[in-house]
Each structure stands twice: as C-alpha cells, then as structure tokens.
Automatic annotation (TrEMBL):
PANTHER family: CYSTEINE_HISTIDINE-RICH C1 DOMAIN FAMILY PROTEIN, PHORBOL-ESTER/DAG-TYPE DOMAIN-CONTAINING PROTEIN
Organism: Brassica napus
Record bears the keyword Lipoprotein: no
Name of the protein: Zinc finger PHD-type domain-containing protein
Biased composition (Acidic residues): 189-204
Domain of life: Eukaryota
Domain Zinc finger PHD-type: residue ranges: 96-147
Keyword annotations: Metal-binding, Repeat, Zinc, Zinc-finger
Location of region: Disordered: 1-24, 189-213
Cross-referenced InterPro entries: C1-like_sf (IPR046349), DC1 (IPR004146), Znf_PHD (IPR001965), Znf_ZZ_sf (IPR043145)
Amino acid sequence: MASRKPKAKPVSRQSVRHQSHSHPLRVFKAKEDDETVCSGCELELTGQAFKCTKSDCDYLLHKSCFDLPGETHHKSHKDHPLTLLYSPPDDESVYTCNACDQYGSGFTYHCSNCKYNLHVGCASLPETILREDHEHPLTLLYCTSCKGREDTTFICSACDETVLEDLWVYYCRECDYGTHVYSCAAYEDQESNEEEEEEEEEGEASTSPASRIKSLMKAQDEMAAMQLEARIMNDANEAALDLWDQPKRRYYW
C-alpha cells in the first residue's frame, strides 16, 4: 500500500498590531508598479510597509508611518505639542493642513487647543531643499516673508500664484525667491537621484525630499478630484430633488 505524503504545513506569517487599525498587519514589500497609497500619510507606497492580513481589506502603512511617535514638538507650533490622530479630528471626514492648505483624510498631527493640523508628510518636510532652476538652497519657512506687511503679497516664483501669508513656503532670502511647499518645490537634484538608486538597491523605500513632496502632491490632487466629484454629484442630486418638488402643470385637451 502506497504511503501518503504528509500535508505541507501552512507557512505562518508573523503579524503585528497597530492602534490605527482593527485587524493584524503583516510585513509587505511595496513596488512602484503597484500604485498603492499609504492609509496613514496618503502618499505613494514603496519599499518596506505593512499590509492588512485580511484579503478584503486594503489597509496599508509605510513602516515610517507605523513607527510615528504619538506626540511631537514641531517648530511651526511651539506653544503646544501635537498629538498623532489616526483620522480627522472632531469626527469629520477630512481636515485642512495648516502647512499647505490642502485636505487630508488620514493621519494628522493635531493641536486640540488651537485646532491646528499637519499632514504627517508636511510635519516631516526637510528644512532645506535644492531646485534645478535655482542656485541656492531653499529654506522652509512656517509663514511667508510677507506676513504682517500691509499691501504686500507673496507670489510663488514657480507658478506665479498668490500664497496666503500663514502658509509654509520654501524660500531663498538672498534672491527673494520662494515656492509652495508641495507641487512647486518638487524638483530633483542629482545627489538625491543617486541616493534613491542606492536605496532601491538595498530594498529600502525612497525617502528623498523631492520624492516625498511629489507623492504629497499626487495624493492631494487625487483627494481634490474626489471631493470635486462628490460635490458635483451632490449638486446634481439637490437639483433633481428641487425639480421633483416643483408643482406639475396639467394640460387638458
């Protein structure tokens, strides 16, 4: 009688827990071709990450977002510490970031006293960056250089749009040159490109300043598009209800 082969034992994958999610998470290697987004910072997911063990749940986290401290002291808000929230405050579906004035629906660093919110991506922006089209490094400012000056507005040197005085900018004082902190600042320099190639060879996530800013820009554009679509659908539904409520005219022949 032929002997049966023993059944292979299922491979056990170590799982971990995170306070932001009800299901266990497992280690996951994300690739750029996957086009996945981190559920925490809402930026493009690449490199070492965590994924929900449930097949029907698409919850994903960067390892860096998994390891975020629960509280931070940020230079932009010196009066109070900022607490990490895993969803928008006050049971809202979105919040507005005080750094870039863009919406967010994932993690935020929050001050309940001042109603101050930061994207976790903005909270970790580098203090200086390089642009290919400017000879000097740009320094991160937590308000524009025009704040408090009457009849003076800050114009982004890259896109020529007005920047509100309380928003963050990257700025060169020597040349009076400054940009938005997200899309207009996303210029790679040769050194950061070489660093990214080395990191990819080692299997680590791409964490250059320009990469983070580009991912932030992409996520914010997608969020804005979703909100616009929802607003259009809501307006269409309201218009349909108004039309339904109007008195109907009867015609007699």
